[in-house]
Amino acid sequence: DATRVLAGDAAAPPLVAQGGIEMTGLVTAINALAAQRRALSDDMARHIAEASRDVALQRDQLAALMAELEQSVVVLNLEGRILLYNARARALFRRLSQAPGGAGGAELIGLGRSIHTVIDRALIDHARESIARRIARGDARASARFVTTTPLGHLIQVSLAPVRAAADDRGDVTGFVLLLDDITDEYEARSRQDHRWLDLSEASRASFASMQAALDMLDYPDLEPADRERFQAVVRDEVGAMSGRLTALAADASHDMKTRWPLQDMLGADLVAAAAQRIAAETGQEVDTDAVDADIWLSVDSFALIQALAFLAARLCEALAGSRLALRLAPAGGRAHLDLAFEGASAGLNLAGWQTCPMQTSDAPSPLTVRDVVERHGGELWLEHARDGSGALFRFLLPVAAGTVPDAPAAGESRPAYYDFDLFAASAQSRESDERALGEIAYTVFDTETTGLDPAGGDEILQIGATRIVNGRLLATECFDQLVDPGRSIPETGIAVHGIRPEMVRGKPSLPEVLPAFHAFAADTVLVGHNVAFDMRFLTLKEKASGVRFDQPVLDTLLLAGIVHPGEDSHGLEAMAARLGVAVSGRHTALGDALVTAEIFLKLLPLLRARGILTLGQARAAAETSYYARLRY
After folding, report:
1. How many angstroms separate the Cα of 45 from the Cα of each of 31, 48, 411, 606?
2. Residue 588 catalytic?
3. Chain-centre distance of CA 452, in angstroms?
4. Lower Cβ count inside 10 Å, N or C end of the chain?
5. How many CB atoms lie within 10 A of CB 139?
């Protein structure tokens, strides 16, 4: 068994000598051959790396460009499977999936997953047919645009364009590029404005009718003075009412224009550094920036906000010569506090008009006031004095950037793997699942942590962790990780194993709430687990309560290990990892065990191929013959 592992994986552990001198000599020879093969493999890898340098550079440049794009970009193959997406798209889809009080462990987007789980297939098919008709008429750069809604009520504008096999736009269409924008806020603002115009039109129509009737009466020369005054009052009142409505409409439109001003995401520390530099240039005074949270991202009009800070700092320096200035940034609930603080006796400080006067700095006068800048951010601003009179601060309440910073890459990855161009050639719908090669299938590898070992006797799931394998590659950045409130006590014996204490799951969603999110994450994949019958029993017992059923094929690394290593005494997760050269970390956490299981599964695939087990159907049939397949929970 160890020799087979070494034959399939040059990085596997060397054989350990056992038995007599003949066996020791054989082991030494096998290890020498493996070392020679490893050296040849390393040499070949070096040549391949050198030959692929230009390709890798272009790939990294593409990834960098995708990361910097302001738009959410998703690339699909002809089947609607996702083969590339950028961080903006990931953030957008995360925002779309966040139902209040719902499970937060799910990802709607992922390599190899179908876009039709988010966007109705009929809409995309209609757009594709429209593009095909335009291409047939000779429009080589045809595209389509439509708007759709999500289950949570978001409005998404989608632009769809074809990917051509040739650079001259004459090749066959091999996939599609989607540009996505969340236009929910913009639509709501326009709807409010439309309602205001409609209300104004209806009210004005009635006012015009009243004034016309009054004016008609005023044309009578023999009208009594009292009646004439009454009809003139009608005209004055209606004109005043119309003027008031127009003033209110103008104020609302001005507010909408300010609040809809395009804001940019910026690291708070960078904003503070730029503001401090500007204040020093304006006032000649250094600014303390030590109290700044380095992890906060803001959504701001940086130019206008820095201008407002410089304006206030200049007013302060005029009023309090020699006062020490400081900029501070800290989280405040779902927003952030940006403080311009100053030391010195603030009693009697006169800054009349500091919110409403047009800002004047060394640059040309600005038509904006500080209050305009605050309203542009949909925030607030106030002047707060220290209780002992030793100073005061201007406090800006600002919006933070939502979901704009991608998660940190997994260890060993320089950039998250958000693309897989091999999926252009995927044909998942062309064959039945059992006939598909094991290396071509998308897998969801998962694990659970539970209160105990008796699912039928009342034990419950505490945590679900999962990752995905697509095209034979572990996607460590596409994970599901969710704690679950079991609705019962957690035995101390279990806490000693998994470390999940009652306070960690208090307030978390229940399993019937979590399972629909996990079901969506695992859609269109084969489930993989270690001793997975145990985990599946927990899922099947909750089918009625959750309303979802996991009916896709399932593979068990425990059963597969019994096929490739029938002579081994132990097929536990740690024993298998040691045999196959897999590093173990995060043991007895659901996600940690799922990641280890995924790496073990990838190591088992070439060993299964060596035994003639090439397809999913063959793997499932072989697993059923294993001794461990008789285990029941």
Report:
1. 20, 5, 22, 19
2. yes
3. 33
4. N
5. 12
